[in-house]
């Protein structure tokens, strides 16, 4: 079980091995995956963490400072992992999750809930699909434990993990634009569109500014408050929808749908995040669910890249 950032684990292994390739062998991943995590970490840190020498990688001053922090983090994580292992005998309890991202029902929830049931078979699990306002209020009122969705930051909620998912133009493989390598929204607006209603929060927030920027009103074939309905109507050839790949992976793999990347200044994406109420001491079962959900979120993000 991994209860800490993948980038932290990779950094620590590079530090101990002295090279990216050696670290990758120890981690049983590709060298490119390790290098990508290191580059992202250095970009976020704002400074190089290693000097690239012929003899291998050597910590910079910033890297040494970060390494001291990482050692403490991993030691604390190991202690917590042992404590969580001791909770296998947990007998009762209930965990309620608020979901504001219908696409993850097929992509993320089944493996997550299965793992939770295997580890805590006596814990009752409840998942409610809600709006952003309803889900946030349920957490703040103590009616729910965890929120998963395309939800903006809230001052009274703690963001435990987040991953970015790019939007694309989704259409049937027979659509005239289906062979394009990339599109902008104006290209799509020349054809009938399948648009989300504000109820589909993450997608609506991405599409609304694009609609406002069009010189002429588009032809709208359908407005839908359901990601599943948007997907089905796109597959039927009714029009183009704007979606990310969550919930349509099987349709893309089978060729029933195609997803063409959408170009937009500043990018076109939504952040899928896990939240709990700020300041809350999490019960063991809730803490375990959050950590398992974080691992699943990382897995989905890696598949999307």
Secondary structure: elements and pairs:
Elements: H1 6-17, H2 20-27, H3 31-45, E1 50-53, E2 56-59, H4 61-85, E3 94-100, H5 104-107, H6 109-119, E4 124-129, H7 132-140, E5 146-149, E6 157-166, E7 168-171, H8 185-189, E8 193-196, H9 201-213, E9 220-224, H10 227-235, E10 240-243, H11 249-254, E11 258-261, E12 269-277, H12 284-304
Parallel strand pairs: 3-4, 3-5, 8-9, 8-10
Antiparallel strand pairs: 1-2, 5-12, 6-12, 7-10, 7-11
Helix pairs in contact: 1-2, 1-3, 1-4, 2-3, 6-12
Your description of this structure?
The protein is an alpha/beta fold. The chain folds into 3 domains: 6-86, Arc Repressor Mutant, subunit A (Orthogonal Bundle); 90-164 and 271-304, D-Maltodextrin-Binding Protein, domain 2 (3-Layer(aba) Sandwich), CATH 3.40.190; 168-267, Periplasmic binding protein-like II (D-Maltodextrin-Binding Protein, domain 2). It is 45% helix and 21% strand. It has 12 helices and 12 strands. It has helices spanning 6-17, 20-27, 31-45, 61-85, 104-107, 109-119, 132-140, 185-189, 201-213, 227-235, 249-254, 284-304; strands at 50-53, 56-59, 94-100, 124-129, 146-149, 157-166, 168-171, 193-196, 220-224, 240-243, 258-261, 269-277. The strands form 3 sheets. Strands 4-3-5-12-6 form a 5-stranded mixed beta sheet, with helices on both faces. Strands 9-8-10-7-11 form a 5-stranded mixed beta sheet. Helix 9 (201-213) links the parallel strand 8 (193-196) and strand 9 (220-224). Helix 1 (6-17) crosses helix 2, helix 1 (6-17) packs across helix 4 and helix 6 (109-119) runs antiparallel to helix 12 (284-304). The longest helix is centred in the N-terminal third of the chain and has 25 residues, at 61-85. The protein is globular. The chain starts with 5 loop residues before the first helix and ends with a helix.
